Amino acid sequence: MSQITQPQMVQSELVAPRTIYNFSAGPGVLPAPVLLKAQEELLDWHGTGMSVMEMSHRGKDFISIAEDAEARLRALMRIPDSYKVLFLQGGATGQFVGVPANLSTASGIADYVITGQWGQKAYTEASKYLDKVNVAARTDPHTYVPPQSEWRLSRDAAYVHITLNETVNGVVFDKIPDTGDVPLVADVSSIILSEPIDVTKFGAIYAGAQKNIGPAGLTVVIVAEDLLARTRPRTPQVWDWYAMAKAGSKLNTPPTYAWYIAGLVFAWLQDVGGVQAIAEVNRRKADKLYAAIDGSSLFVNPVAVANRSRMNVPFTVATPELENEFLTGTTEAGLVELTGHRSVGGVRASIYNAMPEAGVDALIAFMKEFENAHG
Ligand SMILES: Cc1ncc(COP(=O)(O)O)c(C=O)c1O
Predict the structure, then answer these.
(1) Is 209 a pocket residue for ligand 1 (Cβ < 6 Å)?
(2) Which atom of ligand 1 is nearest to 163's Cα?
(3) What pLDDT is stored for residue 342 in this prediction?
(4) Cα separation of 216 and 28, whole Å?
(5) What confidence score (pLDDT) does residue 324 get?
(6) CA-CA-CA-CA dihedral for 105, 109, 114, 118, to nearest 10
(7) Is 339 exposed, middle or buried (0-12, 13-18, 19+ CB in 10 A)?
(8) Is beta strand 335-336 parallel, antiparallel or unpaired with respect to 299-300?
């Protein structure tokens, strides 16, 4: 790994005015200093006369950007050397196939624990690939995580798949399950970098970038090196983790600009104190928002308290008419993208790392005013 070459962002750059607060579930809000840095470097990265978008992915400049981003992610997440970090395309949805294609064993069986819509999608996709996909547990409605003692795990599963944080339903695991010798695999798209995740508890984790990492178009896979020999023979090479690991994720052209922005986001996160520090802010933001919901007679969140997501906070408003009025009013007040996922409706506040605490305070203030007017 080469030395980190990019300059650290200075504290004075950490605050920049935005005209709205963006509560989108993804692509989501990015840190303003990152956008400013990207703007500053847009036409000429470090005196090369070139935009990062225009660089060869095999040239020394992009290689230094790529290595720097990986080193920062490894430092932020304390990823051991025995894990490979892959920077891929295809989104988390692509990895719904990537996981069974790369981790199945002769048994052809995998276990899925389904606690929300994304886990269901991962299961459906894996079912096209494997002989048998066992639903070890499935919640209905998706408002909690069933205790592991209730799961029906297969004896010879190749892996157990979970969605650590369900973005649509706002359901998070309150502890990492222990699956013994069977590798645990997690979709961490909407929780990565928001709180410490002990990578060593997993065989593999994967995430679409467009929430806490950077722009859409990049997908990060972190996989234990000793699982890399399992890739099924006819796996397309862009989906082949082993081949991608050997090629440093540059088997074909990687999403170079998204990779570069991810590196800037990692640098920003290091500047604000790292994952532990942002986790404290995230907890505070979520706690006060849930307190506002629970303390009101208009708003309801149905998720079991222990499994309430600190990244995605869905709630309903007393009647459909009031919900519409609430969503119109918030938008007019500059609190945007609060409409719940199209499949479930309601309201959803995604409060990723880059959502300032002041944004959550503004939302809570709006909720209180709304309740005073309508409660
Ligand atoms: C938990 C989770 N998994 C998977 C996906 C799908 O990701 P992508 O659009 O990158 O395929 C999302 C998107 O929001 C998600 O939140």
Answers:
(1) no
(2) 1
(3) 79
(4) 9
(5) 95
(6) 50
(7) middle
(8) unpaired
Per-residue tokens: 221: 């896979």
**159 backbone dihedrals φ, ψ, rounded to 5°:** -165, 165
Among 43, 18, 40, which residue's Cα sits nearest to residue 30? 18
Averaged confidence pLDDT in the chain: 94
Looking up tokens 């909720």 gives 367
Bridge partners, residue 299, by sequence: 317
Q: Which amino acid is at 317?
A: V
Tens digits of residue pLDDT in 82-110: 999 999 999 999 999 999 999 999 888 99
According to the model, what pLDDT value does residue 184 have?
98
Nearest residue to 111 (alpha-carbon basis) of 157, 155, 175, 164: 157
Which alpha helices (H) appear in 200-312, and where do they start and end?
241-246, 256-271, 274-294
Residues listed for the chain: 375
Q: What is the dihedral of CA 286, 290, 295, 296, to 10 degrees?
A: 110
Instruction: Compute how many other C-beta atoms are within 10 angstroms of the C-beta atom of residue 248.
Output: 17
* Distance in angstroms (rounded) separating the CA atoms of residues 328 and 159: 45
- Any ligand 1 atom below 6 A from CB of 93: yes
Name the stretches of the chain with pLDDT < 70.
1-17
Tell me the one-letter amino acid at 58: R
In the prediction, which pLDDT does 16 show? 54
Q: Please measure the distance between the N-terminal and C-terminal CA atoms of the chain and give it in whole angstroms.
A: 58
User: In which element (H, E) is residue 316 found?
Assistant: strand 312-317
∠163-355-118 over CA atoms, to 5°? 20
In angstroms, what is the span from residue 163 Cα to ligand 1's centroid?
Answer: 10
Pairing verdict, β 347-350 and 312-317: antiparallel
pLDDT, residue 345, reads 80
Q: Which of the residues are catalytic?
A: 118, 187, 211
β-strand partners of 205: 186, 222
